[in-house]
TrEMBL record:
Protein name, per record: Ribonuclease T
Single GO term (MF): 3'-5' exonuclease activity
Species of provenance: Candidatus Pantoea edessiphila
Organism classification: Bacteria, Pseudomonadati, Pseudomonadota, Gammaproteobacteria, Enterobacterales
Summary of the function given for this chain in its UniProt record: Trims short 3' overhangs of a variety of RNA species, leaving a one or two nucleotide 3' overhang. Responsible for the end-turnover of tRNA: specifically removes the terminal AMP residue from uncharged tRNA (tRNA-C-C-A). Also appears to be involved in tRNA biosynthesis.
EC numbers: 3.1.13.-
Length: 217
């Protein structure tokens, strides 16, 4: 394998991390007490030329865990009705287990070491996922235990915008405010945004890195 092809593999692009885009919708801001209501995850792939694209998707409506709180203001903001039988909601365990199976397969297929969460304002989604993992006693999470890629930070640096809708528009990506706050839609838009930011850096000549020969002449 040439050095260029080696650097254009996803396991080399992110130092062995396998990026997985995640969005979580909740019934509040406290991961210990407020219900996790919806989650979506999208894996990414890199072609032979080093361009990154969306790959597989998993999306679930979640049953509020026993004793969890449902903040009316949060429900009004997301438009989620936890009592709607048409949601076909599953348990936190079922949703996370299915997502983790997809992620572990991606890690194995790409030769990466572990997954890393990509999310917009990633701290929020990460803490809710970690709390759900603890509640369900799921073992061996495929995600890095504390590192994330935050598209709000990356967008602020590259686009001058930190709000997802504004960052997408600044990047030339359509954004439908009516569909926003659906975990599936927000994950798809965040994934498209992350791919655009990574690919834009490549188009600008920032990847693969230019190595300088420092040998004395």
């Amino acid at each position: 394998m040439s050095e260029l092809n080696y650097l254009n593999s996803i396991n080399q692009r992110f130092r062995g991390f396998y990026p997985v885009v995640v969005d979580i919708e909740t019934a509040g801001f406290n991961e210990q007490t407020d219900a996790l209501l919806e989650i979506a995850a999208i894996t990414l792939k890199m072609d032979s030329h080093g361009w990154i694209h969306l790959n597989e998707t998993r999306h679930f409506h979640i049953e509020p865990f026993k004793g969890s709180l449902l903040n009316p203001e949060s429900l009004a903001f997301t438009g989620i009705d936890p009592t709607n039988p048409l949601r076909s909601a599953v348990s936190e365990y079922e949703a996370l287990n299915a997502i983790f199976e997809m992620v572990r397969k991606g890690i194995k297929d790409t030769g990466c070491n572990c997954a890393i969460m990509v999310a917009h304002n990633a701290t929020f989604d990460f803490k809710f996922m970690m709390a759900a993992i603890e509640r369900t006693s799921l073992k061996h999470s495929p995600f890095h235990p504390f590192a994330t890629f935050d598209t709000a930070t990356l967008s602020g640096l590259i686009l001058g915008q930190t709000v997802l809708a504004k960052a997408c528009k600044a990047a030339g990506i359509n954004f439908d405010n009516i569909q926003a706050h659906s975990a599936l839609y927000d994950t798809e838009q965040t994934a498209v945004l992350f791919c655009e930011l990574v690919n834009r850096w490549k188009r600008l000549g920032g990847w693969p890195p230019k190595f300088t020969d420092n040998t004395e002449k």
